[in-house]
Amino acid sequence: MVPQYDLEKIKFGVDEKTWERAAGIYEAGKITETEEGYFGFTARVLGTHSYDVAISEDSFNCGHCSCFVGQSGNVCKHMIALAIWAVLRGAPLKK
Ligand SMILES: [Zn+2]
Question: Percent of the chain scored above 90 by pLDDT?
Answer without folding.
Answer: 92
